[in-house]
Specification:
Elements: H1 2-11, H2 19-33, H3 37-48, H4 60-67, H5 73-80, H6 85-94, H7 113-117, H8 122-139, H9 154-161, H10 167-182, H11 184-192, H12 200-206, H13 215-219
Helix pairs in contact: 1-2, 1-3, 5-6, 8-9, 8-10, 10-11, 10-12
Amino acid sequence: MIEVARALALAGSVARLGGPLGEAARAAHRELAQASRSTRASWLADVRAPLPAGLRAVHPSWIEAALAPLPARARDVLAAGPRDSIDVWLARWACAELPPLPALRDDRRPGSLADAIAMARLAEWLTAVGRAQLAYAASLAAPGAPRRDELGAARDVIARCRGTLDLRVIGARAVAPYVRDAGALTARQLAVRLPRELALEAELRGHATGAAPRWDALRTALDG
């Protein structure tokens, strides 16, 4: 849907579209209106490419879900690349819900959310972020526990830890306010880097409000 929405935004045909595709296309159109010339060129290249950039960084569970309804030939296409027009069609069908991803980097301290998405150790970093949130939430029950405002407001930290013990999910909830400001594409990019069953896009939407942890505290999560 992301690539289709971008194609529609580039064509300018978004005003009368309904449903989720219409919403995605209009969001892409608003993003495009503020984009630089290089960003527009990048979008055009991505729309024309049969396979999205950075496909190898997508978690295998997303690939398997995309391939499930398709002919066996589609698996070979994703592995070796398209060879003819039918292969191109299969590739675009299989990758319709997958966003382009940046090249992975061996970085321990992401300077921004975009850097985090490009981390080869993203799951490990989110786990470390989640561990810090859970430890702080647990400490709040102790009398005279020191406040750690750099990790977010106490009420928000407790809410992030409620209902799950998966530290990756808690970590994603902690970065959710930053994802909200970055847009829907960033949410999908973060989600597809981790197992599909975590449903991270829903987690990001559900925890988008509240006081965000300071980025410096997130940036150094792997140092602890």
